[in-house]
Amino acid sequence: MNNQLDNKAERQALYITNQKVLALSNDVNAIKSPSSINKMPTSCGDLKDIGFVKSGIYSVIDNSKVENVYCDFTKPSDAGLQKLIGYVNVKTTPVYFYAQRTGFYSTTGTALPFDDVKINIGNAMDTSSGIFNVPTPGKYFFAYTGLCSDKDTKIQLQNQTMAVTWTAIGESHCTPYNALAIQATVQLDEDDEVQIYLLEGTIHDGDGNHFSNFFGWLLEEDLVL
């Protein structure tokens, strides 16, 4: 009788143990199985919901920027779970250009074209028209340096949006045979345009010295998610 009871107790204990092992196995499989929250993670909390358990440095989305954060998954709540490390300079494509002129230019009321392209990564700069077409939204830096010819000269750095025609970002002018310079950092949307516009005078560049230099690049992209 005692042996029967012992066997029954052992079977019950074995059954309970098997159930626990099965539950643990299911938990492990759940952790290993692919999971999603149907969006890009924006926090350590999102990563935790996906199934991340190893504390460390991860990348998450904050609005249109990518952040590096330290996630401490030993913390049970948001308090102490996430610490910002810094921002990641993510670009869907690099955009930068450098162009020069090799001759005089005096056609006022037009964009300054450039016939010597040193670099045009992203192909956003149309040098024949002198117009830069914004390929992706974000913050851009532009700069132009040049030399006046034998008369007072004035230029503008201009931009045009889908809603507003050409407007001045900034302006520069000089007296004969002195330098022109203009630069700006601007927030632009996709398909906006930027140009150097000759208001009056003549750009000097007929002796191969490349006084006219126009360059720009994408500093920080607003990621479209």
TrEMBL record:
Its main location: secreted. SUPFAM superfamilies: TNF-like. Keywords: Secreted, Signal. Signal peptide: none annotated. It is found in: Secreted. GO terms for cellular component: extracellular space. It holds the Pfam family C1q. Residues 90-225 form the C1q domain. InterPro entries: C1q_dom (IPR001073), Cerebellin_Synaptic_Org (IPR050822), Tumour_necrosis_fac-like_dom (IPR008983). The keyword Signal applies. PANTHER family: CEREBELLIN-RELATED, CVP18. This is Complement component 1, q subcomponent-like 4. It comes from Daphnia pulex. The lineage of its organism: Eukaryota, Metazoa, Ecdysozoa, Arthropoda, Crustacea.
